[in-house]
């Protein structure tokens, strides 16, 4: 059982690492925001440079929170299961 979980977690970690490392430039902007950012950059402004990163950061935050909450829940459930098995073995 532990080998299956370790294998699954390693495959998941490898997949996540590859998806983060091999991401091409992403344009995560609505057309209006994109037009505003491009016009700002053309006029010598620097406001539009971090817009994509900010949008991607806001997109990733809920997924990270759900992942952390799910991991904590899974770890606590696993500990409860181990505690239930210990008295039965004595």
Q: How would you describe this protein?
A:
By secondary structure, the chain is mostly helical. Helix content is 79%, strand content 0%. The protein contains 3 helices and no strands. It is elongated.
Structural class: mainly alpha
Strand content: under 5%
Enumerate how many helices there are, as a single number: 3
Count of strand segments: 0
Mean pLDDT comes to 80
Largest sheet: none
User: N-to-C SSE series?
Assistant: HHH
Shape: elongated
Entry keywords:
90 residues, mainly alpha, 3 helices, 0% strand
Short description:
This protein is mainly alpha-helical and about 90 residues long.
Question: Which secondary structure elements does this structure contain, and how are they paired or packed?
Answer:
Blueprint: H1 2-21, H2 31-42, H3 51-89
């Amino acid at each position: 059982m532990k080998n299956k979980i370790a294998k699954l977690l390693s495959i998941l970690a490898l997949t996540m690492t590859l998806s983060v490392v091999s991401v091409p430039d992403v344009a995560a902007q609505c057309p209006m925001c994109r037009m505003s950012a491009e016009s700002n950059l053309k006029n010598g402004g620097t406001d539009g440079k971090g817009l994509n990163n900010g949008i991607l950061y806001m997109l990733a935050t809920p997924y990270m929170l759900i992942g952390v909450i799910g991991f904590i829940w899974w770890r606590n459930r696993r500990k409860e299961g181990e505690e239930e098995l210990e008295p039965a073995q004595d």
